[in-house]
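Journal club prep, notes for RB
We'll compare a predicted complex against what the paper describes. Inputs for the adenosine-5'-diphosphate case:
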Amino acid sequence: MNKKTIRDIDVKDKRVLVRVDFNVPIDNATGDIIDDTRITAALPTIAYLREQNATVILVSHLGRPDGKVVESARLAPVAGRLGDLLGMEVPCASDVVGASAQATVASLQAGGVGMLENVRFEPGEEKNDPALAKKLASFADVFVNDAFGTAHRAHASTAGVADHLPAVAGFLMEKEIDYLGRVVEDPEPPVAAIIGGAKISSKIAVLQHLLSKVSVLLIGGGMASTFLKAQGVDVGASLVEDDQLDTARDVIAEAARRGVTLGLPVDAVVADKFAEDAEARILNVTAVPDGWMILDVGPNTASDYIAKLVGVRTVVWNGPLGVFEWKAFAGGSRALATALATSQATVVIGGGETVALVQGMGIADKFAHVSTGGGASLEFLEGRVLPGVAALLDK
Ligand code: ADP
Ligand code: MG
């Protein structure tokens, strides 16, 4: 990685502002944290800073409070969970840069850890307001960005603050950029991309960027129906983006021109309605009954895709092959995940739902890298420069 990390800068005895992504899922009814993966992912950076006797001031967003104080989006419960994980008190301010934040920061000892309130309570955060960035910077000597999941946004706490402080990557940010960067820039060939998920429109930039880098491209999920329709297949009531049919044809033509092995579904699990308890049948994609819809790839497609991956050295997977949230339509995604978990290839998984799939199966640790950043990893795979990364000091 060509950006400086916390290892490349003196943080000893310094006050360090760390942007973390503690945007954890919270149970609406109970207020409980459902999954603390995003908190545990930042622990290596926090531990390193504490070893260096630094004072750690954490800043994060939670949910979409849109520049207003929203009681249910306060970070105190998150600070509580972090405190449990660290075995220490983690005080949490009740504002972002006001009197409470100043008092909280002032109360911290060297080696101590504290949190500012949800930074999106401030209207200046998402506008990248320089005044807010300056106030945040005033708390510290060094800025560390460990919030890869928010790095695709140019906000005050991800980009603006770097105008006022030396800015470096934390360990999580470094790992994300290393793995995703290697896949995009310098992968061990042959390379395969598996692109699924709901819509072709949200994945088209990734498809186009990766087409020049892969030998194998496998298409699944809702977007596969648009590809099938583009080839003249009657996909019934399947999710189709009619304005993307030409895009799909372009991808098919470009894959052929480049000699890329393109995988499209040959069979499917079709349903009579978009519902968990829908009637499900396995049929060839050319036999979808009127009014029925494709909700997963079929077993022959899964086997075909797994066969096409034999001998591949690098795999990037973004987007499930079907509506994996419903058991009847999870088979394709699960079969592929199981095969990849035991493959010798370097497998990198990005995308919120795809990550949820492998975590739900309990096999996330079987892959080289499972990205914590949904939208950010997608933009990275599109070859875009992430503002939160660009703002960091070059090596
Ligand atoms: P990711 O978050 O991994 O990038 P997306 O957000 O693009 O993935 O898409 C994930 C969603 O796509 C899942 O919630 C899944 O239910 C849905 N999906 C997958 N296949 C289909 C399909 N055939 N029809 C409708 N929705 C689908
Ligand atoms: Mg998603």
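Talking point for the session: The CA atoms of residues 269 and 282 lie 5 Å apart.
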